Amino acid sequence: MRALTIGAFDGIHLGHRELFSNVKAIAAAQGLTPAVLTFDPHPARIVAPERAPKLITTIDERRQLIHSLGIAEVHVVPFTPALSLLTPEQFVRQILLNQLHAKAVIVGANFRFGHQQAGHIDTLTALGAALDFTVHAAPVLSYRGRKVSSTVIRQAIASGNLSLANRLLGRPYSLSGTVVSGHGIGSKQTVPTLNLDTPAELLPAHGVYISRTRDLDSDRSWNSITNVGVRPTFSGDSLAIETFLLDPFDGQTPTKIKVQFLRHVREERKFPSPEALKAQILTDVRRAQTYFRRTSQLNPC
Hints:
Layout: E1 2-6, H1 14-30, E2 33-40, H2 43-47, H3 59-68, E3 73-78, H4 81-84, H5 88-99, E4 102-108, H6 121-131, E5 134-138, E6 142-143, E7 146-147, H7 150-158, H8 162-169, E8 173-180, H9 185-189, E9 194-197, E10 207-215, E11 221-229, E12 240-245, E13 256-266, H10 274-298
Parallel strand pairs: 1-2, 1-4, 2-3, 4-5
Antiparallel strand pairs: 6-7, 8-9, 8-13, 9-12, 10-11, 10-13, 11-12
């Protein structure tokens, strides 16, 4: 038997974390297994593809983050056209009860479900009373008067406001992927970089960011600075995510990395020469070094 919450949970932000805390508390009180039900693909891909958002996290990242927050089970249900046509009662009977054996269902106060989102918290409560499971409504979390939502966080990331996005996520926004060969420009004319190829859908606005880079195959990590853009100084036309490591680099070049975006530094722009760009990069590096020096003083190990 399970204490279960339901949602897309893109980003796993502060509101989701609060919901998961409620799930764990209710599960412990009733002797149930804390569990999450989520969907892949995102429901909007099926019911309204023209409005489907670019996702903050992949399904694998969501699963990993949810488990890291103490949820024992993550059930990923394929969201299909057939599933989208289930009435609220059919969804409860087929998925929540017959498939997942839910005894307690914990959702946000604005939760909607079933065909054309016909079901809401009162619908779920009535079904719970009739079908013998409890329903718990959690209030929507706000941060400084702003609703914490995946939509707000997506807008913040897309505009380069990583400070806001990170506060609402409760952790640094990050991109993961493989290190690929660049155009060789950095090593010859400016500074050497690690070039990231990522499956992520949502990318920060073009610009330069203070970042932290981790080797996914080891425990190595580095303070860094990352440029997202098209390299206009070199008349580039394809997107590149280039990271310059501020710390000494020893050993083999990593093959898989995670880049955490900490703060926006400046917009990407075209410089009159590679030398001018290199001078700006070194200025950016000094700003990043000052940032890390100050944060280490505020948060000593």
